[in-house]
Amino acid sequence: MKQTIPLFIAGVVGFVLIGAWFFPVASGWGDTAIKWFNVIAAMALILGGLNLLKLNLQKITARKPGWGYSAITIVAFLTTLCVGLLKVGVTPSEAFPAARWGNDFQQEGSALWWLFEFVLTPLNMTMFSLLAFFVASAAFRAFRAKNIEATLLLSTAIIVLLGQTFAAGYLTGWLPEFPVDPTETPNFWAYFRLEVLKETIRDVPTAAGMRAITIGIALGVVATSLRVLSGIDRSYLGGD
């Protein structure tokens, strides 16, 4: 029964949501199921926060390697949580001037907004800027013209990279410009400008490949979802 009831609930709710998408008469059932999901997600969020505190506190108590990062994680988590729940720095709204907490917790100028704008955003930008060097290092090792496929990949990467920089104007700026008006017939050599080649690669072969990958992902999601809803795949229940 410990597995039968969760499997039954998951299957029924899943098929109800699918039916609500295709049949308007079942849309009310789908809305109710989504409300239940929001309640469960809120409970899972609380459990996730408690588990985060538990694991990091254990690491700090045992003085495991990297326990200092765990302390920073706990301080950042509790600070952000308290600032968001207490709506620090939030001013009353015009509709409810007497209600101090009546405005959005992400209001511009609030403490949570300040944390996102001046702490989280710079950290994200720093992390992704560092990733650029790792990507360049990996590309240097991977893009070696060992065969025809690698040569095509290397050539395409060089064209796209140069087309994104000001070097495109210096290298192919002497070629005729591509007309802005789509009704105007462009010069043949205008197609060989690096910025035009970059857009052609992005709009034609890259877009086609991405669509094929997206279709494959969609088919995989459908197959996996049917396995879960029918009870064949029970990995989400844990254990074996």
Secondary structure tally: strands:
0
Main sheet specs: none
Q: Label the structural class.
A: mainly alpha
Number of helices: 7
Cα distance, first to last residue?
Answer: 16 Å
The sequence of SSEs as H and E is: HHHHHHH
Percent strand? under 5%
Question: What's the Cα radius of gyration?
Answer: 27 Å
Runs with pLDDT <50, length 5+?
none
Shape: extended
Fraction of helical residues: 55-70%
Number of domains: 3
Mean pLDDT: 86
What topology emerges from the helices and strands here?
Elements: H1 4-22, H2 27-61, H3 67-86, H4 111-142, H5 148-163, H6 167-172, H7 194-229
Briefly say what this structure is.
By secondary structure, this protein is mainly α. It is built from seven helices and no strands.
Quickly list its features:
mainly alpha, extended, membrane, transmembrane helix
Explain what this protein looks like in three dimensions.
- The protein has 240 residues and is mainly alpha-helical.
- The protein folds into three domains: 1-86, no CATH class; 90-133; 143-233, no CATH class.
- The chain has helices at residues 4-22, 27-61, 67-86, 111-142, 148-163, 167-172, 194-229.
- Helix 1 packs across helix 2 (27-61) and helix 5 (148-163) packs across helix 7.
- The longest helix has 36 residues, at 194-229.
- The chain is extended.
